[in-house]
Specification:
Elements (H helix, E strand, L loop, with lengths): L1 E3 L2 E4 L11 H14 L11 E2 L4 H15 L4 E2 L4 H4 L13 H13 L4 E6 L2 E7 L5 E8 L1 H12 L18 H28 L4 E5 L3 H4 L8 E2 L3 H14 L2
Parallel strand pairs: 3-4, 5-8, 8-9
Antiparallel strand pairs: 1-2, 5-6, 6-7
Helix pairs in contact: 1-2, 4-8
């Protein structure tokens, strides 16, 4: 993601596989920058958040070469996240979860449930003070589709077109019903369970590629913020640099 004068102006993705060399990542980064008309020498600072340990060093080195400076590495550091973790093992929580929660605490109302629908779907509970109470983890919708396809050979439709009804009358609609409506009902149930355990209604803030397909099918009011994690990284960077 690219920020200028505190405004998120662009974001992009690059091809990725685990444990690639830094040179492969570097090629992807430089190509993406050129495509979006961003000159590497004009990038004053950068930050990396990684939840894949075996890839972190390669991406870090690629960024260091591309921008000719050492990137900030996002870490579970309360001094910069500003988050209190009321969980059994604070070191286990995903750094991407922390980034999203930083944005919610800064930008939205609390208490909150933060939903990230990526490779996995996570729901994170935050109390009225912005402390993290805990997390639920569910397989993401694309992972679910791939898991269904692998042993059965059923077709994968990644267009994620919502079905017109729950009772599918052909394979495509039946899978869409299970993946999209099924996940929407799951999300409604989990949000209700979270609110019951927390003893209060919560704002629901969503991000990740799957959110725009599933969350509009949910009954609970919610806000979709596609830049939730990137804005959290930017907040961390500013606190780390003292700016």
């Amino acid at each position: 993601g690219v920020f200028k004068n505190d405004v998120h102006i662009k974001d992009f993705s690059i091809p990725y596989q685990k444990e690639q060399s830094c040179w492969t990542y570097l090629g992807g980064i430089l190509k993406a920058l050129k495509t979006h008309d961003i000159k590497p020498e004009e990038v004053e600072g950068s930050i990396l958040c990684s939840v894949v340990k075996n890839s972190t060093q390669g991406v870090y080195e690629a960024m260091e070469i591309a921008f000719s400076h050492k990137p900030v590495l996002f870490e579970n550091n309360p001094e910069f996240t500003g988050l209190n973790l009321k969980i059994d093992s604070p070191q286990e929580i995903g750094l991407d979860i922390l980034a999203g929660c930083m944005t919610v605490k800064e930008k939205y109302s609390l208490p909150a449930i933060v939903v990230d629908m990526g490779t996995g779907t996570t729901l994170t509970a935050m109390d009225k003070d912005g402390s993290i109470l805990g997390v639920s983890i569910v397989p993401g919708i694309l992972i679910s589709l791939q898991a269904l396809n692998s042993p059965t050979g059923l077709p994968i439709d990644e267009s994620f077109t919502p079905p017109k009804k729950a009772i599918g009358t052909n394979t495509k609609d039946s899978i869409a019903s299970g993946i999209l409506l099924g996940n929407a009902f799951l999300m409604d149930g989990m949000i209700s369970a979270f609110e019951k355990e927390m003893g209060t209604e919560c704002g629901v803030y969503c991000t990740g590629g799957g959110s725009k397909y599933v969350m509009p099918l949910c009954q609970h009011p919610h806000i979709i913020d596609e830049a939730l994690l990137l804005e959290g990284l930017y907040l961390y960077y500013k606190k780390y640099k003292g700016i």
